[in-house]
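User: I want to check something. If I give you two sequences, will you return the structure for each one separately, not as a complex?

Assistant: Yes, each is folded on its own. Here is the first sequence with its structure:
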Amino acid sequence: MLRNYVTVAIRNIQNSPVYSTINVLGLTIGIVSSILLFLYVDFERSYDKFHINKDNIYRVTTQATVQDTELNVPLAPSLTGATLMNEYDAIDNFVRLSGGSEMLISVDQEYFYETEIYQTDSSFFNIFDFELLEGDRKTCLTESNTMVISKSLAEKWFPNGSAMGKTVKTDGEDTKIITGIMANPVINTSVPAHGLLSYGTNTQGQNAWGNMNDQIFIVLKQGSTVSEVLPVLSQMYDKYMAPIYEKFGASAEFSLQPLTDIHLFSNFDFEMGTVGNINYLYIFSAIGFFMLLIACINYMNLATARSVARSKEVGIRKAMGSYKTQLMGQFVTESIVIAFIALVISLILTFFVIPTFNELANLEISQNFMNDPKMVLVLVGVILFVGLVGGSYPAFYLSRFKAAEVLKGRSKKSKGNESLRKVLVVAQFAISLGMVVSTWIVFDQLDFLRNKELGFNHEQVVTVALEGEQVRAKLDVLAAELLQSPGVESVGSGFGVPGTNSMSMSGIKVESADGHLIEKIFQNITVDNQYFPTLEIPIVQGRNFLPQVGNDTASSVIVNQEMVREMGWENPIGKRFERFINDDLETKAFTVVGVVRDYHLISLQEPISPLVVYNGINNGQMIVRLKSDGISNTMSEVEGIFKSVVTNRPFEYAFLDQGFQQHYEADQKRGEVFAIFSVLTIAIACLGLFGLASYTAEARRKEIGIRKVVGANVMTIIIMMSKDFLKLIILSMIVAFPIAYYFMDQWLQDFAYAMELKWTSFALSALFTLVIAFATVLYHSLRSAVANPSSAIRDN
């Protein structure tokens, strides 16, 4: 019986090439899209799951409160892990990680700036299962001044031989011995380390409970739970940290975050790797499901539209003794065969598309995805879903035809069938329109962020790293030389260049509006007197730092306007600050000498926060504003001047506007993925619309012939044929737009600075969809309109 079903199904597919091609093409697009989105979601959920002991590894996080300021960080005091294990016997093991920012590496006489190099403990390879290609996992980081590097760094630093046992200098001074080579970090890790430095015994702040500089991962004992460790963390806080925090009116609380939750469920600053968002996975999962559903709707629509063409077949089968269940089995088998053909084509296409998709979405999906048992189950589910969902209603509808009426030519159109087709078309285009308008709004928001006023002029500004005290001491000479170049407009420096996340957070005492000193946590940076002029940020009250070092370096600060609002100051000039300068909570006094206009120090995803600006001259980043003419030649001059003054450092620079764009790369990539699948969703819906238009034109062939005989022109026929479909699409807009408005309004709430939803986004999406839909049905409408009416009337 099954063999007969399959044979008949293949024969019917061959006898209806246009119908079969539309169905296979629509299902192929839907299945390829669903597979890619499943692989995307599965990859995002795979972060950190390759570690054998992943379920017992947790990160210690801290929520600190100072007055009304909250600070949530994935950091803890450096002594936390050792205290939990040795004093309280609460955990099995721990590892600390700190650093990751730009580091100067010197190899013989060559210099490199590298990131993603972390200080860590010898337990690193005992806790994490990163592959170590050379060296001993147990001993490679036990000694001070040892280092493990990735394969790519080993090849970069030592291209002509093995790196094992060789020495390098970090920050140009401290000598490290390379004791291990590890595999390059995979993308799906929250610890993207390219280098590991053994913790030294004199690390600054390592033995201070008041400092939170380290990410600390702990391993729970077998059988232990988070609920058992959290009270121990509270006891540790009460014993060691509370006495320090209470001195300036602060408090803190520890939490434990599962290692496998970091990528999708973190909302902390200072993460080592790029974090994702679980909400986007829900969205992409829904898109994959809806694309498959739309492809199934196509099949249902076309199958029921062809009911008249297949009614005689049903009548003959019933007259020959076929039962209704047998007919239903035949039609469901036919849909499964079509789904299987589409699946085979989809697997081939997916194999070749994966490299491009990886590059687009920054993934590492393997082309051998069929080796994953989960994928086999998914594909079986796809076939059953398409076969049963897509084939069930057509099977039920076609199998209920009455043999006698069909064979006598009395079969009639079912109003219920026609109504269902309209509902399905509306559903298809409602989903498609919702995706199109959402994509439009996503790109509008990204464009809004790119073009929003940042509070400073970032055009033609170059940042240059100044690593090491010896280089920073030459800043005055370097700036003087650069200003001699006709293409250089101004030169400044600072620790805290916009867009680089190089500011710091620290607790200070600040004078309140009523004259009392209160404890707060504020962002702070250090700059010279040319920092604000170079970035073209005006001082709105008071003055800038003085050119001479003198008292400004020792006792003056500048604050931003948000600080003035936060503190409720009527006259901020002369207000007092006291900065903590050591772990004994000794303070140094400062006075406000100026107020700078608010500007965005981080990205537009974060609101402008109160800012304290200290004065300093030996800063880590130089900023150079270039004149608009001959930038390429000017950069060559800047490089030449830098190398003549700084002979033992590489010249590395970045344009300031590029730093800000990097903050939106993840959203940009997600938007591009979303846009591609939105277009494909429209394509699937229009394939179904094309097929329906074909069968509608055939069914109304006689009517069109009569209308032409009585005087209807070509335009009248085209309008008549198109208006019914366009009405359905307009109805789908009425359904889709309110839903899209609600969800996109919720999405925009996650941005500190969001655009207002504009009617143009909806209007342009509607116009885009209407044009494509009209073009889809135009072919059959035009073909029917220009056909010879006499042949249509005679044939009928």
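And separately, the second sequence with its own structure:
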Amino acid sequence: MRKKSLVTLLVLVLVVCLALPAYGAGMTPEKAGEMAVKAAGGATPVNDASKDVKISQEKAIEIVKELFEVPEDFKPEIYLNTGWQPGNRRVWTINFYKPSFSIYAVIDADSGEVISFNQGEEWSTPYGRRKIFLAKYTREEARVLAENFIKKIAPDKFSKVKFVEENYYPGLKFGGLFEPASYFFRFAKTSENIQPVDFYFGEEGINVTVNAANGKLVGYNLNWSEDKPIDEKTISKQQAEEIYIKYLGPELVYVRGFDEEKGKPYDAAKLMYVPARLVYMGPPLTIRAKDGALINYAGDEIKGVEPLTEVDFSGAKTITPTKLETPLTKEQAQKLAEEEIKKFGLVDMILQSFNNVPYAMEPQDLYFFNFNSPDGKTVNANVTVNAATGKVQNLGFWKNTGPYYPEAQLKEASAPEAISWEDAKNVALEYIKKYLPDKSGQVRSMDYPQEVNSKFRAPYQSYYFNFTRTVNGIPYVGNNINISIDQKGEVISLNYAWDDIIFPAPEKNILSREKAAGIMLDKISITLAYIMPKMYYEPDAPQQSQKPEKILVYALKRLPDAAYIEPSTGEVLNYAFKQPGTIKSASSGVNIKGETGRREAELLMNQGIFEPSMKIDLESVPNIKDAVKFFASCLGLGPKMYPEYGLKIDEKADPYKKYIDAALDQRLITDAEAKNLDRPLDRQELAKLAIRFLGFEAIAAKGEIFKLDISDAGDVESGFEGYISSALALGIMEKSSDKFLPKEKVKFGEMVKTLFRAAQILEAGGQMPD
């Protein structure tokens, strides 16, 4: 009877402790409706145009409700879209919504086929408490559910797709267990050994997202076209390889990788070969299979592309940024920002906002300024000043020019003749030479010519140019100058980024482009694929209804995680400069040793609590600080996840500091306890952590009111009685015979099981787990 009363009391306290503000901001019905219209790609409300479709709007709504769980109180908002791609379909776009929650679906208006489905998550309970999203399905189990969903929704297509194995990790979560957890699965369409590749629509096939907590389908997308390529004749693969190497890759560039341990980019650039030539403006380039012509992913043949060449390293040197003895103050940085925008004729600008919130790329060294013209709408400018180097790191301005042509001309789909691409490019280059003379000699245009069709691009179209920064004659992917020129030849916007980081000089043993190409063809290779060019039209231009034709191309084979070729060793690396690879069993448990607590560890890894790179030995004995780290992560580190947003922390010197700081805020530990966490974790310390994790500290700390029903109560240190009694009453820890063994060291697997049981109680609002 006493145990039941204790549980009831604990539940009541839990209810009070969980009565916190909602973690995520809600969405208004008006915003949901606006998003529905936007997502529909210019869809129109239901009208007479819908009379000849085979599936009525009522039937479309019925289809969604039959296949998916749609609460009865959700209001549907439905639109007809007559140009959905691929396939130029007529579709119903449906949005069911209520405040803070929405369901979006796309149904083929002629066949009733489900094309897309997406369901949002409610981040709070009806009483305003933060909602727990505890994963209960492993990735393997969720994949089975995903396959069953496909069999149910698109049974005729399941046999035509192949599951794509790839590295999967959701990333550490800002909110821990208070953030939704899900699994994403990709099933690629198989087509006679031809790889479906499309830049605009993505790979043909089916994508499915499964909620890790309840196993429900929350995302589904069908990207499918039954049309065959218009021409199946092809040049040989060897011919295609020769063309690819000459024009498309590999290319030597500087890149700035991402430091996964610190959660920010590296402080120095690295030299890497990228397998595909860099193109910034316009669709990427590929090889038309029938004749070897270079085309972009919009299907346009591109002429005048310069062949790639070997880089001349003579005279190359290491570039190191020079820092000021004393960083700029806010006032000094603002003066520098104002002087910089005045260079572009932007005078009398008014400072609208300023902040120096530490930034992930350069913690605490950057000042951000935003300026507007006096009328608040004609011109906007943004400037980022690096206080450590005393230089402008980013600048951008945009002029609101408005439409040039009267409505009468738009109806006739006419507009004044535009200047040519070459003329516009020359305007851009002269502008850069005049206003950014120190940078003009350090940039290179890496794009192919654009065209302006004044009839179908009314009211006006701007040319956009990207000039990539070069260092030692080598392009740096991270920096560029972007500039847009309108049809009159006027500059209407400019943006540049110029990092102050280390650029190492090329080493003598760098592989030639020819050797890098051989490695690329051997380890990555090119393959036959097809693209479906997408037709773009401006809202006021005449629209032509036609299906996009499939075009056979030779393209770089799509490999998970293959981003670079290391220029000294020839290794294929990912974006973190590590060797890529797929998870053989699609399991997150590859780095988990032992059996006790294995399932719970896998679930928490998929939840983003444990990192997949972490080697977990479930039989090992963790220190108290290890337990603190994972309990704190479950409650959500918030901004402390990224030290750059708080105080500067040397994570290599103290990898636990951010977790300990979070645990102090969460009241998992006290200031005094934080000084003594290097001891091995024992059972009484685990009980204390688990009960504080549940928010029962106020009761459990009153140890004198508890009577322990264990034979080794005398071994329990004073002050731990309430925690142990509560842990046993809630079922998150168990006795061994009639003993608790309070000072027995805890294995990692037992800690994980206890943490998971406590999380189950949090999720259930205080009810004990089964």
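Because they were folded independently, the notes below concern the second chain alone. The chain has a mean pLDDT of 79. The chain has 18 helices and 30 strands.
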